């Protein structure tokens, strides 16, 4: 047993760090070791508890109702609001779409209206539940266009979506106008606040200019907010809130059509560990309202300082003025964003590359956490050096043969042989063939190669890569 734990620690040493404020995507770090310890201990204490039956584990029921109640207070919810704890933002989004679809059983081919910047989880929900996504172009500031959204609504629309903020650019959509247009037509309006839900209310309290987006906005029928982001809880918790119990009712699933127990679920899962919920409850109780306000102050100070530092670097700029804690950066053409990401990684900072889309160039994504605040000067120094190195290196050039190979591939008929040919051409496999797949230390060339592909081809290539990467290790 001890040997297994030793092996775990050894394997984990190759992972991105989850503490220290240097991983600016995927993880959200409060920078408070005691809070991290409390969350982990709570997860461990409830790892064996099962949220399948709330009557069997009443402590889980109590924690869930208290967590939802705290969220309701934070998000200006009416007394009628109800909510459910889920495993993450994607499950919350899936349930919001499924519930909207099932609330209108008479519509044979339901649709949902999405700004083009809505999270990809909505496309996943569309794929799973047969709800057609109607994508509406956004404005030059990357915020949703309310008039275009309203024009896209029709008799088949079961849901309209807005973001607070959008992941790619960190801006809040004009929720008031979008929700009003949806309400006028009797359509549900969901606000995806998975990122901003637990930090934007504190931003407003601190006097920052935050567009209206909570249940205080008439016409908002549901909101998703993740606890494992800016509530700084352990991974695996989000909340989906509905304005009334009637709006939530189609979310529930029950089945007595078999000889076992009558299945009753409030989420996509049946069996679910009580650990993540306990971790979230413990962290929220430990931090309290004052603790979250303090962390919000830290994270927004970091955002402001980072923006000011970027303003002194002529080669890069923010894509759009961020409303929250997410910053998207673009380059002036003297360097490419993929090389900047590599150079940041070489200096111990992880920032996320974002591919070009619909005429917009590739960008660099930065998710700022409270833990980043003490290290902003180091971050800006590293960014300055990364940009200078990227300028010196010059733009990434994809081999013309590789580019031609990609252009000839059919995303609907991508075979193992096709994928192997691309990997070989890109230098990602060698003499070991299919068993020798390994990522290079620097990803700029790979990302530039993917950036040449159409979205459909990019999806096909990454699915093939994931399939190859996750094939079993046999003894």
UniProtKB/TrEMBL annotation:
The name this protein goes by in its record: Aspartate aminotransferase family protein
Pfam families: Pyridoxal_deC
Record-linked Gene3D superfamilies: Aspartate Aminotransferase, domain 1, Type I PLP-dependent aspartate aminotransferase-like (Major domain)
Keyword Cytoplasm attributed: no
Family in the record: Belongs to the group II decarboxylase family. Sphingosine-1-phosphate lyase subfamily.
Any single biological process term in GO: carboxylic acid metabolic process
Keywords for this protein: Aminotransferase, Lyase, Pyridoxal phosphate, Transferase
Naturally occurring in which organism (per UniProt): Nocardioides turkmenicus
Known cofactor(s): pyridoxal 5'-phosphate
Origin organism lineage: Bacteria, Bacillati, Actinomycetota, Actinomycetes, Propionibacteriales
Any GO MF annotation of the entry: transaminase activity
Modified residues (N6-(pyridoxal phosphate)lysine): 229
């Amino acid at each position: 047993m001890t040997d297994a734990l030793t092996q775990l620690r050894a394997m984990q040493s190759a992972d991105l760090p989850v503490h220290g404020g240097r991983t600016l995507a995927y993880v959200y770090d409060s920078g408070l070791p005691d809070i991290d310890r409390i969350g982990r201990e709570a997860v461990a204490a409830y790892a064996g508890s099962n949220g399948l039956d709330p009557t069997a584990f009443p402590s889980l029921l109590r924690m869930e109702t208290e967590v939802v109640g705290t969220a309701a207070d934070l998000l200006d919810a009416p007394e009628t609001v109800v909510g459910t704890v889920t495993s993450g933002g994607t499950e919350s989004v899936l349930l919001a779409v499924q519930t909207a679809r099932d609330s209108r059983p008479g519509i044979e081919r339901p649709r949902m209206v999405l700004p083009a910047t809505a999270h990809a989880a909505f496309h996943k929900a569309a794929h799973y539940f047969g709800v057609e996504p109607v994508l509406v172009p956004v404005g030059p500031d990357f915020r949703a266009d309310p008039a275009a959204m309203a024009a896209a609504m029709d008799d088949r629309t079961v849901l309209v979506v807005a973001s607070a903020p959008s992941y790619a650019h960190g801006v809040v959509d004009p929720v008031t106008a979008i929700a009003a247009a949806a309400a006028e037509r009797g359509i549900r309006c969901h606000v995806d606040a998975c990122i901003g839900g637990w930090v934007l209310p504190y931003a407003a309290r601190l006097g920052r200019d935050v567009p209206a987006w909570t249940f205080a906005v008439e016409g908002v029928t549901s909101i998703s907010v993740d606890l494992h982001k800016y509530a700084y809880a352990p991974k695996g918790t989000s909340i989906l809130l509905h304005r009334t119990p009637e709006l939530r009712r189609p979310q529930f699933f029950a089945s007595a059509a078999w000889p076992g127990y009558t299945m009753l679920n409030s989420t996509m899962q049946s069996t679910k560990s009580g650990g993540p919920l306990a971790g979230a409850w413990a962290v929220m109780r430990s931090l309290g309202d004052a603790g979250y306000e303090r962390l919000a102050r830290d994270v927004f100070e970091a955002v402001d300082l980072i923006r000011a530092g970027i303003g002194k670097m002529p080669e890069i700029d923010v894509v759009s003025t961020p409303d929250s804690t997410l910053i998207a950066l673009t380059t002036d053409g003297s360097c490419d964003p993929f090389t900047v990401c590599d150079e940041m990684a070489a200096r111990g900072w992880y920032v996320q590359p974002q591919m070009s889309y619909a005429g917009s160039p590739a960008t660099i994504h930065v998710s700022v956490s409270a833990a980043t605040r003490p290290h902003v000067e180091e971050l800006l120094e590293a960014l300055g050096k990364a940009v200078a190195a990227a300028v010196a290196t010059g733009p990434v050039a994809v081999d013309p043969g590789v580019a031609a190979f990609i252009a000839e591939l059919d995303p609907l008929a991508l075979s193992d042989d096709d994928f192997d040919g691309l990997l070989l051409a890109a230098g990602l496999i060698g003499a070991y063939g299919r068993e020798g797949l390994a990522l290079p230390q620097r990803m700029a060339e790979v990302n530039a190669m993917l950036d040449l592909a159409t979205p459909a081809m990019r999806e096909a290539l990454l699915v093939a890569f994931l399939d190859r990467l996750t094939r079993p290790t046999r003894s």
